[in-house]
Hints:
Elements: H1 2-29, H2 46-56, H3 65-85, H4 89-111, H5 114-118, H6 121-141, H7 151-160
Amino acid sequence: MRSSRVVTFALWVGRIALAATxxxxxxxxxGLWGPYGSPRASWGDWAHFVAYCxxxxxxxxxAVIPALAWIATVLETVFGVGLLIGYKLEYVAYGSAxxxxxxxxxxxxxxxxxxxLNYSVFADAGGALLLGALASVTKSEGRSERGSYSVADAGAxxxxx
Length: 161
């Protein structure tokens, strides 16, 4: 059953990678990757993130941009932590897929198709959707005690079929 171990590992890596993507973006807007203008920071602080949020959501009224920035930040934090710990994985993965897809559509609308392709936002949405689908399959086969779905267990069951 070597393939089940590979699938289990791949699913774990995908979950951690998506969580890192979300949580790294949140960390950046609070300066944890350095101040604005430093080599590792995209925004470096909240003000620059809100300005970027306005660019990405150029179709939205300026008055709602700060609210959109907070909503995105809260959702990215909740989904990132949820993916990291695997809690309610199906719902968290599907929610992440929707968030990534909305972000990709907003980027496309405001800046063209090249921006979301350059930042792999469509790939993130697809990966999150795949993770949610696999968690959904696991749901139909049984729950863990915490009410979460084990990605490792789902991978093992999928590989056996």
